[in-house]
Amino acid sequence: MSLAKFIARRIYTDRNAEQNEISRPAIQIALLGIIIGTAVMILSIAVIMGFKQQITKKISGFGSHIQVVSLTRNVDNELMPVLTTDSLKKVVMSTPNISHVQRYADMMGMVKTEDDFLGIQFKGIGEDYDTTFLHENLVEGHMPPFSAKESSGSLVISRYIADKLHLSLGDKAYTYFITPTGMRARKFSIEGIYQTNLSEYDKSTVITDIFTIRRLHNWNEDQSTAFEIYTKDFGKVKETTDLLVEKVNHRTDRDGCTYGAFHIKELAPNIFSWLGVLDMNVVIILVLMILVATVTIMSGLLIIMLEQVSMIGLLKALGATNSSVRSIFIHFGFKMVVKGVVIGNIVALILAALQYYTHIVSLDAEAYYIDSVPIQFHWLYFLLIDAATLLVTYIVVVGSTHLVSISKPAQALRFE
Q1: What gap in Å lies between CA 190 and CA 83, rounded to an integer?
Q2: Strand partners, 175
Q3: 30-60 CB burial, b ≥16 within 10 A, e <16
Q4: What digits encode the pLDDT tens for the residues 138-164?
Q5: Given this model, what pLDDT does residue 390 score?
Q6: I need a surface site. Which of 44, 188, 321, 326 has the fewest CB within 10 A?
Q7: Is 275 in a helix, a strand, or coil?
C-alpha cells in the first residue's frame, strides 16, 4: 500500500471525536448526497424506461408496429380494402427486421341493449392474428378461436364497454351496421372482457372474427383493412418502414388501389410525442442529481482539507510535493465516491425490485394508462450512469485538491 493510500485511509477511518466534530458530519452528508443522487438516477431510468416500454407495448398491441393500408378511397369517400394476398405477405416478410404479419378488417357499428346503445369499432381477426396481447389483458372469459372461414358469433369487449352497457359474460349483444345495401343486424355472445387502460381504445374497440366483418363489407376472402406488421427490434421501426415504403408505397393492385406503409409513431403521434417529453425529464433529473453529488463531495472534501491543514504543512515541510499531498485527498475523495455509488446502486435496486414484484406504488390508470409504477431493469443504462457519476465526481475531486498547492508549510503549521 502506498503512503498516500495509507494516510487517506487513516483520515477516513479516524474516529477522534474532538478532531472530527466538523469533518465527520461533512463526510456523512457528502456520502449521503452521492447515495441519494445515484439511487434517484437509477430509479428514474428504471421507471421511465418501464413506462415507455409498457405504453409502447399497449399501443402496439392494438395497432402493431407498422401497418400497410390502402390510400385510395371509393365513391363513398371510404378507404378501399387492401388485397392481403400471400404474394404481398411474402414481399413484406422479405424485408429485414420483420417478425410477424397479420391481417385484420374493421367496421363501425352500434351495440344496443335494452337500456343503452353505443357506437364502436368492430375489429375482425383470424387464425394468423397474434392474440398474445389480448390474452395478457383479458380480465374475464376467454379468447374464442376467431377464424377467417366461418362466423364465431362471439365478441370480446372492454371492461369500459361492459360497464357502460351493463353487459356480462354470456350475455347476448345486438349489433347494427350500415352497409351499402342497408342496415344489417347481428347477434353476438360476450365471450371475453379485456382491460388495457388505454381509454382511446378501450372506449371504442371490440374484437370479433374477420369472416363476419368481411361479409358485412361484402369483401372477398383476400380483402382486409390492413396488414399489421411486427418488427424484431422496435428501435429500428422507422428504418424498417422506410424499406417497406420502397416496396409497397404506390403499389397498385387489381382494383386500382395504391398502398402506403406507416409506423405506429406516425399513427399515434400524440402519445409518442408525450413519451418523448419523458426523455427530457430524465436528462434534467440526471443533471440535477450529478450536480447534487458533485457539490456535496466538493464541500466535504474542502472541509477535510481545511481540517488537515496542519498535516499538509507538516508533509510539505518533510519534503512532500504538492502532487503527492494531493494524491492523499484524491484517494480519500474517490474512496467516498465509490462507496456512495455502490450503496446508491444497492438502495435503488432493492426499491426497484420491491416495486417490480409487489406493485406497491399505484397510479391512476385513467391518467397514466397503467395502474402501477412500471420498472424495467436496463443494466447497460445503469452502468453508464455509474460510469458518468464516477467520472464527473473524480474530475471534481481532482480539481478540488488543487487548493493544496496554494498552502505554504510555515503558514499551514501555524493554522488553527
Answers
A1: 30
A2: 111, 186
A3: bbebbbbbbbbbbbbbbbbbbbbebbbebbb
A4: 999 999 999 889 988 899 999 999 999
A5: 86
A6: 321
A7: helix
Q: Residue 189, SS3?
A: strand
Q: Decide if 374 contacts 51 (C-beta within 8 A).
A: yes
- Residue 233 sits at the vertex; the CA angle it makes with 232 and 239, to the nearest 5 degrees, is 110
- pLDDT of residue 178 exceeding 90, the answer is no
C-alpha to C-alpha distances, 57 to 52, 60, 68, 211, 264, nearest whole angstrom: 8, 5, 19, 27, 11
pLDDT of residue 77: 60
What are the strands, taking DSSP E only, across 89-194? 98-112, 117-125, 138-141, 154-158, 172-179, 182-194
3-state class (DSSP) for residue 376: coil
Residues 370 and 196 sit within 8 Å (Cβ to Cβ): no
| Bridge partners for 337 per DSSP | none
Helix/strand/coil for 111: strand
Angle, to 10 degrees, between the axis of helix 322-358 and the axis of helix 309-317?
140
Distance CA(227)–CA(204), nearest Å, equals 20
**Cα-atom radius of gyration of the chain, to the nearest Å?**
32
DSSP 52-67: HHHHHHHHHHHH-SEE
Mean pLDDT along residues 178-204: 88
Q: How much is the pTM?
A: 0.77
Neighbours of 358 (CB within 10 A): 9
* Residue 18 reports pLDDT greater than 50: no
What is the band of 252 on the pLDDT scale with cuts at 50, 70, 90? confident
CA 290 – CA 261 distance, rounded (Å): 43
Instruction: Give me the DSSP letters along 286-307.
Output: HHHHHHHHHHHHHHHHHHHHHH
Q: CB atoms < 10 A from the CB of 1, how many?
A: 7
Dump pLDDT digits (tens) for 66-77.
998 888 876 556
